[in-house]
From TrEMBL, chain A:
The chain crosses the membrane at residues 569-589, 610-627. The keyword Signal applies. It comes from Ostreobium quekettii. Residues 1-26 form the signal peptide. It comes from the Eukaryota. This is GPI transamidase component PIG-T. It holds the Pfam family Gpi16. PANTHER family: GPI TRANSAMIDASE COMPONENT PIG-T, GPI TRANSAMIDASE COMPONENT PIG-T-RELATED.
TrEMBL record, chain B:
It comes from Ostreobium quekettii. This is GPI transamidase subunit PIG-U. It comes from the Eukaryota. The keyword Cell membrane does not apply. Residues 1-24 form the signal peptide. Keywords: Endoplasmic reticulum, GPI-anchor biosynthesis, Membrane, Signal, Transmembrane, Transmembrane helix. Pathway: Glycolipid biosynthesis; glycosylphosphatidylinositol-anchor biosynthesis. Belongs to the PIGU family.
Length: 651, 463
């Protein structure tokens, strides 16, 4: 026992020593190149945004960037190994619990993800098509190992779509897989935190209290790796790893979320503990509080009413005004510009490195929340089943532009002939057989010719137990339309007993539809080139906010119930059906071999044949016995030799 | 005769049109009793819609019928009424063929209305209005039997080849038809139809003399055998027609690249353009020859949608390990008694053909009510069998009961959700037993007829 312990300790020491020497060698070798631009970066940011119904959005954003080099100080080794082993260019995995509630929270500040697990990957166009399934399979297994999830179920092609148009940022082969039933838990979070240089002991990640995280109304864990393949001689790949965690939590505990009473909150009251300072290796640790434009406008309105006209040059402060106060005062205040259009949203920037015990608190100065109502969302998508009971039904994907008047998407007045474009991806599992010829389109409740609306499409037909149906439609509808629906009829299939999941009566998931907008700027907001410039401090999250949040809009998935067989019946069915078969064989045999009078009359001339048949049968049986039994064969040979027919040479 | 038939034909057509016009078609088109994955009009429409998109109809698992079925419906499939026109025409033609057969075989007037019985059979009407392609398969089977009965070898071979092309199982009728060609049409007809017409057996059948130049049909002395030349000619014609239909299918699918790449006939398989797509994931669904998607699909029993047959529930419940074994067992049962029947009833190939139709209806993986209508239409042509058959009252009533209970159980299970799959399964099981009983009774009847025939001939010899 003791010897083993000593041996292990020795091995450990030896290994560590080796590592040190190796690392030292690596550093010294790389040292001349370690100029500006060759430095790894890690940044941590946190966005806090109050929501109209008293909830608070928290968005943790961690960015790792590494240039092409062999050895990394900050960049997580697991991610590096992953990108070296597998030939992908971009991979995005998200685990989400709960649903982003458009009606209560308005448009998401960062794109909301569908429930369950989602894996999107882009493979290089150079990858040969036959290698795509294995590349995807490896990726699913790698990610499911990295993040302790069951993403490996996505390896089977029956869940996976190969869209052509919806992801258009970069050229390549996009593969999209969804697991709507995936449960999200701390076992996904723990390995995710290990990718951070400070883990959850320092920095913003130290805020992540498990109880708060998993009692949140919406929880989305997101990992995104982008690899720029370098030449092997340059020492590796340039990589950008983004880890985000989005939470929607109650502002103050113990208050009904539906009550209209305002909630005052502070970071420590939400997350159960204040921050423990910045992560030492982070190039920046920032906390932003985003005050929605509506609130700012309303606060301005309140102040104008309050102040006596001409009563001195009072400057409006976005953090301390008649409506609310955010304490402490921010290091600086910014105006948010989304897609080149100035909005009235204010962003209060705090630097965690300056103030390590930062605890921003938001409190109302008035009773009520100043009449702050959730603004209509720009666009929402719904998938639902029409007439799902019975042998046929209809699948409806509906896109509604409820907040049609909102500012950034409508910079100018609309003309009648103007069209708006969107691309829609709906994957339908094979057991829901959709009939393409029944596809209809409704715009504002009126039939609209599909041929006029669809300007490009890709249809993947479902294959039983192999491939889902994939409807990928790029549509253009009149810009004045406020809703649009695609309906398609389907017939539910019947699965065998072994194909049913354990809880078959729960229903079967139809994955959510995904809508993207080809007209709008779709860049990710952050370019790797920006991160190469070491002198500038890039606030990645701020850049992201300045771009469209409508990159992806998902519907919520839906359930379809299939008729189930009786799971307790296999043996009974075997017996009953086999009984019928036995009756068939037995009765037919009896009917066919029954001897009729006519057969009796023929018996006289048949006896010779019968005798011949009998003799033949006996000979055949004897041959068979001889073939099967070597002893009898030996006896026969012996006997024949004795008689003198055979002459066997015996030595 | 023709006048009566005409009036009744119009009656049948009007009945179908009326039902379709009243909107029965959309309700019937999805019924499991009527539409199987192989024979549903919905799937034909889907296949045509895919063709319009430039996709092969065999992309994915939407369409499993033969390629030429798409050509039959290509112009009319979209229209709710016109899409039924080919099916109505097929039913009318079937009825005409059956009437003509009854006429040829000189059946007594009571049996002559076989065609009308077929046309007004509720099963046929429902199958036709529900858009089951089985109507066309039935017509092709009747064509082959009619061709056999009129010793029109090319027509018989065409009917057989086309029916086998359409639904595969009619291919099993080839053996009885070969037997028919071997022993000659007239003696076979005489024995099958007139074997036990009692008093009328002594007179030459009047209908029969119409197509046979020499009235050999005495039924007592054994007529000369036709022998091998007729059989070989028949086989050649069958091979020719099958090859013809396959080439025609390849031509029909030529415009879809993924098929021309896999065509055995068009011969551009090895080209570079095709090699590019050979293993592509994206084209995975089109990676099969159409025969694998039609006949292969049928033989593999992949679709477990309930129907009136025995396969679906058995393979829903069966453990995966034993699946292939039991698929082999089930398919082998449809072939099992074909040769024994031919050995036992060498003089009655037409009867064997009818019996085999019943066996096909039992052991098709996706049977529909058209398959039942097929043999129900043929039975009135064999009055001898019918006379020997007992239990008419029981058989008719039990079938009526099953016809009511089947849809009721389906409704309880699927629409209402208050029953489970076993309810519908029990009805399909009883229907299978009903068909087994019918089959065995008919075998009994056929054998006892043969026995009587022998007795009769001995009696004549003694005289």
């Amino acid at each position: 026992m003791a010897r083993t312990a000593i041996a292990t300790a020795f091995l450990r020491v030896a290994f560590l020593a080796l590592l040190t020497v190796y690392a030292a060698l690596g550093f010294t070798a790389e040292h001349p190149k370690q100029a500006h631009g060759d430095r790894e970066r890690f940044e941590e940011e946190l966005l806090i945004k109050p929501l109209p119904d008293g909830h608070v959005l928290l968005h943790f954003h961690f960015t790792h960037w590494t240039p092409a080099k062999k050895h990394h100080q900050l960049f997580p080794r697991a991610a590096d190994q992953l990108s070296q082993a597998l030939d992908f260019e971009e991979a995005e995995v998200s685990f989400t619990r709960g649903r982003w509630d458009n009606r209560r929270w308005g448009d998401p500040a960062v794109p909301a993800k569908p429930m369950g697990a989602e894996l999107i990957a882009r493979f290089p166009s150079s990858l040969a098509a036959p290698e795509l399934p294995s590349a995807w399979g490896n990726l699913t297994h790698a990610f499911s190992g990295l993040l302790c999830s069951s993403l490996n179920f996505l390896e089977r092609s029956e869940m996976v779509a190969l869209p052509e148009f919806v992801f258009k940022r970069e050229a390549g082969s996009w593969v999209h897989g969804l697991l709507p039933k995936e449960a999200v838990c701390t076992e996904n979070l723990t390995p995710w935190l290990k990718l951070l240089p400070c883990g959850d002991s320092h920095g913003l990640a130290a805020l992540m209290d498990r109880h708060v995280l998993y009692s949140a109304d919406y929880h989305s864990l997101h990992t995104h790796i982008e690899v720029t393949r370098g030449h092997p001689s340059n020492g590796g790949n340039e990589q950008l790893l983004t880890q985000t965690l989005t939470l929607v939590v109650r502002g103050s505990h113990g208050m009904s979320s539906l009550s209209a009473r305002p909630s005052n909150w502070s970071l420590s009251s939400i997350m159960a503990s204040p921050p423990k300072g910045a992560c030492a290796v982070a190039s920046q640790s920032q906390v932003y509080v985003q005050i929605p434009g509506q609130l700012v406008d309303r606060a301005k309105g309140v102040e104008e009413v309050d102040t006596v006209p001409g009563g001195g040059d009072h400057t409006f402060s976005a953090h301390n005004n008649a409506l609310y106060i955010v304490d402490p005062a921010p290091n600086k205040t910014l105006k948010l510009t989304t897609m080149g259009v100035a909005t009235s949203d204010a962003i209060l920037v705090y630097d965690l490195e300056v103030n390590s015990s930062l605890d921003p608190a938001f409190s109302w100065r008035v009773a009520g929340n100043g009449g702050w109502e959730p603004r209509g969302v720009q666009c929402e998508v719904h998938t639902y089943i029409r007439n799902g009971q019975g042998e046929s039904g209809g699948l409806v994907v509906e896109v509604g532009w409820t907040g049609a008047g909102s500012a950034p998407s409508r910079p100018r007045g609309l003309l009648r002939h103007e069209l708006k474009k969107l691309c829609l991806l709906q994957t339908v599992p094979w057991f829901v057989r959709v009939w393409i010829h029944t596809m209809r389109m409704l715009v504002d409740g009126q039939d609209y010719p599909t041929a006029r609306a669809v300007y490009k499409h890709m249809l993947g037909m479902s294959q039983d137990r192999k491939a889902p149906a994939m409807l990928e439609l790029c549509l253009q509808v009149p810009a004045t339309a406020s809703s649009m629906a695609i309906t398609v009829d389907f017939t539910p299939a019947f699965l065998s007993v072994t194909e049913h999941p354990p809880d078959a009566h729960r229903g079967f998931d139809i994955p959510p539809a995904l809508v993207t907008f080809p007209d709008e700027d779709d860049s990710t907001g952050v370019r790797a080139e920006d991160l190469k410039k070491p002198s500038e401090s890039i606030q990645v999250l701020l850049q992201l906010l300045q771009h469209s949040q409508r990159k992806y809009v998902y519907s919520q998935g839906t359930l379809v119930s299939l008729a189930t067989p009786d799971f307790s019946m296999p043996y009974n069915v075997c017996c009953l059906t086999s009984t019928v078969l036995a009756i068939y064989i037995g009765a037919m045999l009896k009917a066919l071999v029954k001897r009729t009078d006519a057969d009796e009359t023929n018996e006289g001339r048949e006896w010779r044949k019968r005798l011949a048949g009998g003799v033949l049968l006996m000979i055949l049986m004897m041959c068979w016995v001889l073939y099967m039994d070597p002893e009898t064969r030996a006896q026969l040979v012996q006997w024949l030799t004795d008689v003198g027919i055979l002459h066997v040479q015996t030595n | 005769m023709a006048g009566i038939l005409d009036r009744r034909i119009w009656c049948g057509v009007a009945l179908r049109t009326l039902l379709a016009g009243l909107g029965a078609a959309p309700r019937l088109v999805g019924r499991v009793e009527i539409a199987s994955p192989l024979s549903s009009l919905v799937r034909v429409r889907e296949g045509l819609a895919l063709g319009d998109q430039g996709l092969s109809p065999y992309t994915g698992d939407a369409y499993h019928g033969p390629p030429l079925a798409l050509s039959v419906f290509s112009g009319v499939a979209r229209h709710p009424l016109w899409s039924l026109a080919p099916l109505i025409a097929a039913d009318v033609a079937s009825a005409a063929l059956l009437s003509r057969l009854a006429q040829l075989w000189g059946l007594s007037p009571g049996w002559k209305s076989a065609g009308v019985l077929y046309l007004l059979n509720p099963l046929t009407v429902l199958a036709c209005v529900g858009g089951s392609l089985g109507s066309i398969e039935n017509l092709l089977v009747y064509v082959s039997i009619y061709g056999g009965a009129t010793s029109n070898i090319p027509l018989c071979a065409f009917g057989l080849a086309a029916a086998a092309y359409w639904g595969l199982h009619p291919l099993l009728l080839m053996l009885p038809l070969c037997q028919l060609m071997y022993i000659g049409v007239e003696p076979a007809t005489v024995i099958c139809i007139h074997g036990l017409t009692g008093g009328s057996a002594h007179q030459p059948a009047e209908g029969l003399s119409r197509f046979s130049p020499v009235p050999t049909a005495r039924g007592r002395e054994k007529p000369p055998r036709k022998g091998w030349p007729g059989l070989l000619l028949f086989l050649c014609y069958v091979a020719f027609w099958i090859a013809f239909l396959c080439v025609l299918s390849e031509v029909a699918l030529r415009k879809f690249k993924e098929h021309s790449c896999r065509s055995w006939v068009l011969g551009i398989r090895g080209s570079a353009e095709c090699a590019e797509h050979a293993d592509d994931w994206r084209y995975r669904s089109a990676a099969k020859h159409w025969m694998a998607e039609t006949y292969g699909f049928m033989l593999r029993v992949e679709d477990l949608t309930p129907n009136i047959g025995l396969f679906w529930y058995f393979f829903t419940e069966m453990f995966d390990n034993f699946r292939s074994f039991f698929i082999f067992v089930f398919h082998s049962l449809s072939v099992l008694f074909l040769v024994p029947m031919m050995v036992r009833m060498p003089e009655q190939p037409l009867v064997i053909a009818v019996l085999q139709c019943i066996i096909n209806a039992l052991f098709k993986p996706y049977p529909t009510i058209s398959d039942i209508a097929l043999y129900m239409g043929l039975l009135p042509l064999f009055p001898v069998l019918m006379r020997h058959f007992q239990w008419w009252f029981f058989m008719c009533n039990s079938f009526l009961l099953l016809a009511v209970l089947g849809p009721a159980m389906w409704h309880q299970w699927i629409q209402v959700g208050s029953a489970n799959s076993n309810f519908f399964y029990s009805i399909t099981l009883l229907l299978a037993i009903w068909q087994v009983v019918l089959l065995v009774m008919l075998v009994d009847a056929a054998l006892s007829k043969g026995q009587n025939l022998e007795k009769e001939s001995q009696k004549t010899k003694a005289e």
